[in-house]
Each structure stands twice: as C-alpha cells, then as structure tokens.
Write a structure and sequence with these properties.
Radius of gyration of chain B: 24 Å
Largest sheet of chain B: none
Structural class of chain A: alpha+beta
Shape of chain B: elongated
Low-confidence stretches of chain A: none
Number of strands of chain B: 0
Strand order of the largest sheet of chain A: 2-5-1-6
Order of helices and strands of chain A: EHEEEEHE
Strand content of chain B: under 5%
Number of helices of chain A: 2
Number of helices of chain B: 21
Helix content of chain A: 10-25%
Structural class of chain B: mainly alpha
Distance between the termini of chain B: 66 Å
Oligomer: heterodimer
Helix content of chain B: over 70%
Largest sheet of chain A: 4 strands, antiparallel
Low-confidence stretches of chain B: none
Strand content of chain A: 35-45%
Radius of gyration of chain A: 16 Å
Shape of chain A: globular
Mean pLDDT of chain B: 89
Largest interface: A-B, 11 and 9 residues
Distance between the termini of chain A: 11 Å
C-alpha cells in the first residue's frame, strides 16, 4: 500500500536558517528509505509566503497570493512510501527526523485517476 | 435431522465460534466489515440448508466455505483487482480447511490487536472488540455505553472502514511494540468491564452481560498468551469483582459496600479461579498495574476466611500502584487505605492532594471525602460531601446508600 507522510511546521520555521544537523538527518532518512526500497516520491516545500492559490469559479480563473488556508502550521514536506501495511508506515513516520518535534500525519493514498506517472 | 436440532446447531456455532470465524476471514482479507457480512450471509444459508440436508460434520468449515463464496461474489462485482487476489488466496485456504481434519487456525489474537490498535479511535476499541470477537449487536453495545444505537453503529462503521482503508495489519506485534500494544488490548477489555459497573442503570441486566463478556474475552486471551503476567492479572482482577456480584446488593436491593458484604454470598469458584491466575502471574515475575489491582482485591477476598482486612498491606500495594498509574481512582483508593490502616490524617491529606477541579463530579472522591470526614468527626462537612457524591452517580442503589450516609 502507498502512504503519504505529511510534515507540518510553524510558519516562522520556514525562514529560519537550516540547521546542519537537521539537514544531515533528513539526508540520512532519505537514504534509509531508498535503501529499504520503499521510497516512491518526496520533497520539502518552500515557505507558504511563496505559495500562490488558483481557483476557477464560473469559468474564470482566480489567482491569489498565499496558501489555501491561513493557519499556524503549514505543510513543509512530504514523502510517499510503498509498504505492506499501516504498522510499517507508522514505523517510517516515527523515523522521520521531524517526528521528534511535530506529529507526522500518515494517510493512505487513494487510487488516483490521473497520477499515472511515478505514483501509480 | 429435526428442524429444531439444526437451529440449535446454528445457534451453538454462532455462540462458540463467531469470533474465530470472523477473525479467520478478516485476517486474510484485511476487511472486518466484509468478513462479518459474508459470515452473516453464511449463517443465513445454513438456516435454510441444515434443517433439510442435516448438520454438516464440520459446521465451522461449512460456514467458512459459504462465506468465502460470498466474498468471491462481492469481490467479482466490485472488480477491485487487488481485493480479488487476496480473496482468491483466501478461497484456496478455506477449501483446505474444509477438507482437512484439522481445526482452522485461531486468529482471534490478531483480531484483538487490530480492535485495540492505536490508530483506532479509543472510544471505538471496546465496542469493536465486543462486536467482532463476541458477535454482540450494536444496539446492545450502545445501551451499555449509554449512547444511541445510531451513534454506536456509526462509530463501529467508521472504525471498520479505517481498518480496511488505512491498512491496519492483522498480525501479532513484536518487540519493542509488544508490551504497549498488549496493554491497549487489556485496557479495552477492562473498559468493557468497568463500563458495565459505572453505567448500571436498570438493576444490572446490561451490566452483567457486559461484565461476563469482558471476563470471557480475558479467559480467551489467557489461553492465547499464557505467559503474560498482566493478562492473568487482569483476569484475576475482574474475577474477584465478579465473585461479589451477588453480595453487592441486599435482598431489599440496597447497595452494600465491600467491607460490609456477606462473604458467604461470594462465589467460591470465581475467587479460586482469580487466586489461581494471580499465582501464575506472580510466578512469571513481572509486576504490573493489573496484578497489583488484583492483589488488592485478593486481600479483600481474604476477609471471607480471616474475618479481617489487612489494610497496611493494601496501603503498600497502593504505593506501588500510584507509581505506575497515578489515576484519580488509584489516588482515592490509596487515601482510603491510609485512613483505614489507622492514619486518618494522612489519608485526608492524600485526598486533598487531588484538586477539587480534578475531582469534579468523580463520585468516589466525594464518597471517600465524606467517609474520612466522618472518621474525623467533622459531621456537617461529611454530610455535604456525601450529598455531592450522591448527586454524581447514576446508580439508584448507590445514590440511596450515599444519601443515607449523609444523614447518619
């Protein structure tokens, strides 16, 4: 089964300089995911300040500065993994370096109608 | 084969093997709701066939075969490829079971771990266990938990969807998760037991069914994991409490507190079974919350022989218990034990350590407070506390008892 691990961070942490230890931990985590053969896709995200939202209402495109919803915490990164079951996914979520300071949300991917590329 | 004996056979299989059949099917399909539906269909078919063709030699295998046919049909209709593959695999195994002489494997332990998985809403764990392992219907569970049948049904459906959609695995966890996951199973079983006690509104009918159900699951668990001391501890704890069910009320229906109960009304056989389990637990040499609670109940049970209660020993056990689980119930128990062992002021101080905020409407805290104030001769304050305790319980017999103590 494929699961997405979602990491949310407080807004100001996006602008804070990267801590070398955290960068190293993130890299090691990525390598562990690949070595185990469970990695499907993943990336970190830039600050929500640089997000742009698009919607289409009555056939007209509306573009707006900012993320979908203003909250205290924003999506900061995600990993998609392919593992046998929820317990295996929870184990990988627990190993995510962010899990020591923020909850990592684990959700199964639904069968997608359009993502026929890497995330089949 | 007479019709009535065929119906009796269906009923007997439903009573004795329901949980094993659901567990077997669900462990292979990963879908509890689907397994239950298929099985209920299979029981329906049995009710039509067995009176005409006779009860099959291996009724469980017959039902598994019928259930797997139903699973294959629905998977075919849904045309979900992955599901279909697991169902086909299940079909092969079910056929093996039907032709083999062996009994089919018992997967109830996996089912218990799934029902109490930390990814399942904690309020759904116990109901889910009662329904899937024992086959209780949602309406009956709802009345025990004091929620509407519709709300309980929704809670159960949501939990079963999560098991299937989130991919909660049917396996027995290993180290290092084992101890924590087992404690979730034990907590869910104990919640079934205490829910019965707390929500006894109509003279205990629902309670007794639910308490008995909790004991039944714990007895099964003892067989499935015989080397876990806490499992024996939990069973011993519940058995000690169950042993006294006849003595909790007198013939007028009035509540009788534990230290006043007529010990000749206690069930000797349940106490013996409890003591046996407690001995096995202590032989396994790993102390835990349920064993300590059972040991406290064991000391109360000794009054039947010695005529006295060894309160200093109970205080010692509470000292250990409060370190492992500092719940309000344990803190109140410790305070009362301190007072009963002679140190009333220490007991009162222990009660006062619990803030009134935290005590809120917790009936045992107010009742204990009234009791200790009475021991201290502070009669007026004691009456107020007992009245507050009486207003915090749903149990009419207990309320009458507390009000009587408010007016000594």
């Amino acid at each position: 089964m494929k699961y997405i691990l979602l990491v949310h961070h407080p807004k100001d942490s996006f602008d804070a300089p990267k801590n070398p230890a955290e960068v190293a931990a993130g890299r090691a985590y990525g390598e562990a995911l690949r070595a185990a053969g469970v990695f499907v896709a993943g990336a970190g995200l830039v600050s929500p300040q640089n997000a742009t939202s698009v919607s289409v209402r009555e056939g007209k495109r509306h573009v707006q500065d900012g993320p979908y919803a203003e909250t205290k915490e924003f999506l900061a990164g995600f990993v998609i993994i392919d593992v046998p079951d929820l317990d295996a996914a929870l184990e990988w979520a627990a190993r995510n370096p962010s899990a020591s300071h923020t909850p990592v949300e684990v959700r199964p991917l639904a069968g997608s109608y359009f993502a026929t590329g890497i995330i089949k | 084969m007479g019709e009535s004996s065929a119906f009796a056979a269906v009923e007997a299989v439903a009573r004795n093997s329901y949980g094993r059949l659901v567990a077997y099917l669900a462990a292979r399909s990963g879908d509890v709701a689907g397994a239950e539906d298929a099985l209920s269909d299979a029981f329906g078919t049995a009710l039509q066939h067995w009176p005409v063709n006779g009860v099959p030699q291996k009724p469980e295998a017959w039902l598994l075969h019928a259930a797997r046919n139903r699973l294959i049909d629905s998977a075919r209709r849904a045309q979900v490829r992955k599901k279909y593959e697991t169902v086909l695999q299940l079909a092969g195994e079910a056929d093996d079971v039907a032709t083999m002489n062996d009994v089919f494997p018992d997967e109830r332990l996996k089912l218990l771990f799934v029902c109490s998985h930390p990814a399942i809403d904690i309020a759904a764990r116990t109901p889910l266990m009662l329904q899937t392992v024992l086959g209780l219907d949602a309406a009956c569970i709802a009345s025990a938990f004091l929620v509407s049948p519709a709300a309980m049904e929704q809670r159960l459906v949501r939990a079963k969807n999560k098991i299937r959609e989130a991919g909660i695995p049917f396996h027995v966890p290993e180290l290092p998760e084992w101890a924590e996951r087992l404690s979730f199973v034990l907590d869910a079983i104990y919640a079934a037991y205490t829910t019965g006690w707390e929500n006894v509104v109509d003279d205990g009918s629902t309670h007794h069914a639910l308490a008995g159900d909790a004991v039944a699951i714990a007895r099964t668990l003892v067989q499935l994991v015989p080397n876990e001391p806490e499992v024996h501890g939990l069973l011993a704890l519940m058995l000690h409490c169950e042993a006294r069910s006849e003595a909790r009320h007198n013939c007028a229906g009035e509540f009788v507190p534990l230290d006043r109960q007529d010990t000749t009304l206690w069930s000797r056989s349940l106490i013996d079974e409890a003591e046996r389990n407690l001995r096995i637990a202590s032989g396994l040499n790993r102390m835990g919350r349920y064993q300590i609670e059972a040991a406290i109940q064991s000391i109360h049970a000794h009054r039947a022989m010695s005529g006295v209660i060894d309160w200093p020993e109970i205080v010692l056990l509470y000292e250990g218990l409060v370190r492992i689980t500092p719940t309000i119930g344990v803190q109140v128990g410790r305070a009362v034990a301190l007072a009963e062992s002679g140190d009333i002021l220490a007991g009162f101080a222990a009660l006062d350590e619990i803030s009134a905020d935290r005590a809120g409407n917790y009936q045992p805290w107010w009742a204990a407070r009234g009791h200790l104030l009475q021991l201290l001769g502070r009669v007026g304050e004691a009456s107020d506390a007992f009245e507050r305790a009486a207003s915090s319980t749903d149990d009419p017999a207990l309320r009458t008892h507390l009000l009587a103590r408010a007016r000594p």
